[in-house]
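Listing S7. Sequence submitted for prediction.
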Amino acid sequence: MKKKEFLNELENALSGRLSESDIREITSDYGDIFENGIGSGKSEEEVAAELGSPAKIARTILEDGGEGKAQEFVKSGSEREYTDFQRNINEKTSRII
């Protein structure tokens, strides 16, 4: 599966269940995972295979995110402080790659 197809499937699976801003942030994070993998010499298909099913990822995000009640991060000085939801996504993403 190519990057664009993966991100479209992930977006579709989250659509209507999270805010548009949360979906954009999540798909951006996964887009970054693809870019990092490609930068490491992997193909888009290899990165997608390592990540697994976009539908399963969406289910995990929704289960961990309190059914779409995610909050946006806030800025504090020059550092970004993430909500529990975003930290949870980051932890799961770091285990995937």
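Caption to Listing S7: primary sequence and predicted structure tokens for the chain studied. The CA atoms of residues 72 and 83 lie 7 Å apart. The radius of gyration is 13 Å.
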